[in-house]
Amino acid sequence: MDRVNLEFIARRRLETGITLQDMAESLGFKNASTYLKYEKGEYDFKANHLPVLARKLKCELRDLFQCLILLI
């Protein structure tokens, strides 16, 4: 099972020097505070956000995910 790797997204945003407001505007949000709620996991990124994130963060789409191994 995969889930969005919020730590990677936050770290990569900082590494690339992209502001919260820049990310917010790229995803169609008016405020940086709205974007931050997504980055912190309060809201879930939607499928249509992921390609935009990958382009902005200059990474592959698969980099936005972390694999969770479930042992039963």
From TrEMBL:
Domain HTH cro/C1-type per the UniProt entry, residue ranges: 9-64
Single Gene Ontology MF annotation: DNA binding
Entry superkingdom: Bacteria
InterPro entries: Cro/C1-type_HTH, Lambda_DNA-bd_dom_sf
Protein name as catalogued: Helix-turn-helix transcriptional regulator
UniProt organism field: Brevibacillus thermoruber
Native organism taxonomy: Bacteria, Bacillati, Bacillota, Bacilli, Bacillales
